[in-house]
Amino acid sequence: MKDIQNSKDERGIEIQNVGVKDVELPLTIQRKNKTDCEVWSKATASVSLPKDYKGTHMSRFIEVLTAWSNKNMLGVDIKQCLKEIIEKLDAKSGEIKFEFKYFIDKESPVSKLVSPMCYDCSFKGTYYNDEYKFYLGVKVPVTTLCPCSKEISENGAHNQRSIVSLNIHYDDDAHIWIEDLIKDIESCASSDVYSLLKRADEKFVTEHAYNNPKFVEDVLRDVIIKIKEKPEIRSYELFCESFESIHNHSAWAFQKEKIPKK
Amino acid sequence: MKDIQNSKDERGIEIQNVGVKDVELPLTIQRKNKTDCEVWSKATASVSLPKDYKGTHMSRFIEVLTAWSNKNMLGVDIKQCLKEIIEKLDAKSGEIKFEFKYFIDKESPVSKLVSPMCYDCSFKGTYYNDEYKFYLGVKVPVTTLCPCSKEISENGAHNQRSIVSLNIHYDDDAHIWIEDLIKDIESCASSDVYSLLKRADEKFVTEHAYNNPKFVEDVLRDVIIKIKEKPEIRSYELFCESFESIHNHSAWAFQKEKIPKK
Amino acid sequence: MKDIQNSKDERGIEIQNVGVKDVELPLTIQRKNKTDCEVWSKATASVSLPKDYKGTHMSRFIEVLTAWSNKNMLGVDIKQCLKEIIEKLDAKSGEIKFEFKYFIDKESPVSKLVSPMCYDCSFKGTYYNDEYKFYLGVKVPVTTLCPCSKEISENGAHNQRSIVSLNIHYDDDAHIWIEDLIKDIESCASSDVYSLLKRADEKFVTEHAYNNPKFVEDVLRDVIIKIKEKPEIRSYELFCESFESIHNHSAWAFQKEKIPKK
Amino acid sequence: MKDIQNSKDERGIEIQNVGVKDVELPLTIQRKNKTDCEVWSKATASVSLPKDYKGTHMSRFIEVLTAWSNKNMLGVDIKQCLKEIIEKLDAKSGEIKFEFKYFIDKESPVSKLVSPMCYDCSFKGTYYNDEYKFYLGVKVPVTTLCPCSKEISENGAHNQRSIVSLNIHYDDDAHIWIEDLIKDIESCASSDVYSLLKRADEKFVTEHAYNNPKFVEDVLRDVIIKIKEKPEIRSYELFCESFESIHNHSAWAFQKEKIPKK
What we know:
4 copies of one chain form a homotetramer. Chain A is α+β, with helices and mostly antiparallel strands.
């Protein structure tokens, strides 16, 4: 059978990224102080395509991903997977990203009851200009209570669910646990959110948030301070969004930064 | 050209609904105390298909919808549009639904500044068993403040954005304005939400919500009382969902009911 | 601490459904010819609330769900879980639904390569009028190739991805495997879809679809015939949607039916 | 009332972007060869925040947006709106984006019937380093028919709906019509998609796509060639995604480029 993808292209355009998107597959994740677990993930992968070729071979992405998924290799070790994709497709660069659902057992603050909380996380590996980089992403739901509303109102203060999305790139020889990164972020909000709260917990969470008012700007700045405490982080993108309880729109803040190695 | 759709089907199965979905088109809407306006809408339409026919003629839905959209006929008058679709497709029953974005100018409670609020609304017409019925739907964002959290906490109370979704069917000779239905629903929550709030408004809204705590169950019951005050309503479906600020999940309540004419 | 939820309500309105929604938690699933596996799921649960009570106790839903999730009880055995929720909340009726991501290894048609395909599935248990009912839901992506386009065109025929969504309720003493239900549905389309297809497979799939043209009406009717072959099915809801490749909207067909026991 | 936002911040962190997100409001759009029209839009706006200030004043964004919406100023003229936001908030940089639904009347290829097609479009203005830039975005649904599938199969070829997303930045003194940009993109696919197609049109569209097979890579390259023909374009981001009819995942290609002025 003729291989159309391999036919010569005359348009003279090298393509930066071509590949597959939203490929659902099981992924094995290393957990802090627990055995590894298998999670649902959605993969997006791409390579560069030289100007002389008409198309890439999409099925090879799936072949590598499937083989790699079958071997139960860890999500955090995607360097080899990406390398294999790039080799099989004879490309000079490429990237791969897994978005996945990750459960962490969480204890309520007073009754100490434990229930699972689910976090949207991601691993991304990129290979450009002969350099491999790894990125870890987490989306953390928290409570924010408005300092202005508290200050000007006789009683109460509006508060709401917010999502803090953080993507970090760190040194290859370092390791950062998802569990630790999430805990750091949660400590920067007016309060954590929980799956299971009994009445004593609800009292605690309500009062803790009231005593700890935060704008979306405050959460952003406090998370940045936490990031700067980790010397292995080389860059980050941080996005905080509050689904305002008094509006039908959101308040948001964003920061990105490269941090040179000292 | 052969008309495959018209060929005889031997499977003996009459189909209840077959048609088109998510057809975006402009729709003209009658506004209370304002001139008509054109809005973005998404139409879904279907007819029944007799057991002897292989398929319906999908393009005829679009022909009727386009002709009807061009004549700037009002969304609320979809009876004729549905009748025409049913005739053109030689069907015995059918239905049509428009989901649309609707702006209402809203005044902030203290500073009296006016800004547009957008509501997701819908018109639906159904024709089954020789009977036409019209349904009006609105989705109304509001604030709910938790009565339990207020009661047990020394200060503050968790609150959040909630969505109240109401679909009503009312007598053919009656008319209910979207504007009025939304106002009724908003009056049942801890507070309205607004696009534009200055500091004096924010103080008012915060304190009003604090003095007016409501469970999702309270909002549901209060909206039901409002519904029962309108003698022209023959049935409703009511769904309230609170995007809890202390959890990463929702609290919800649902009720549906037929109300016989007295 | 005062239990506000337990306070007396004077509005005289019994609520049909009140509960929690979109609670993410791990769920154990029984697989055909494989060991059980743990999947990501999203639970929605509700009970009825008598007219005399102001509110339900939302945290009890999470307590039961967490305990049940920790015991690795099977998703298909949700009868006890629902019973416990109803008892703990002193309700007369209730329901619970888990939506989950389910992987099945699938072999490509010619090269016989195996890769995982992910399906959106659901288990639902309801308890109304002293009767328990179980529902199984699957969403199956398939290819549909248009019979009209094939007939009237000299070459080719438009085809597209379609989703067949089927919910069935069957007798309590019967068991239907997800794997079997999906295979039945896939056999009713122009072709299956796959994660991994090499060129020989792509040739097969393309030609198979071309030789097997199906309207959305055809898929619906053929799935209904498959359903009727299973004497244990007591009711179904079937929805087929084609994301048309020549339009920016969908074609769809829907059928629901109760099937009395013979 | 105290202005908490204005209080001094000691953390020493200047924020790059802080503002409002998903504010729905009506927007006036200039159309090619037609009168202006009002569309539904969703605005996201932000400014920078100096390190000395605790927070921005979120309500001022809405004030400027509302005033500007009331004056029926054109979406394409957002320079003044952004300037006013930046001044009112005493910031040094900022940006604003409107995403909106835009209808264009489209003629079917053979029967010449006209019906509205809806496109997701966006206007974005940014002001960084004392320089204003304007970006126009369009998302265009098209058909792609697989060249490989056509070549290796005896009959037919798989095809599907694809979305081409293009964002361009062009010289301030130039103007590019949405209508023209969309037409250029549609000409690069295997076929346009349409709202209304009669049988003669369906035959044409099917055969045209079959005679015009395109990988996602081909569409990307052909759109790039079209972009390069416009000397006023200074940069672009181009994303093509095919919702494969034989898979449950997508194929995609991406390119971005700065084009220096000659």
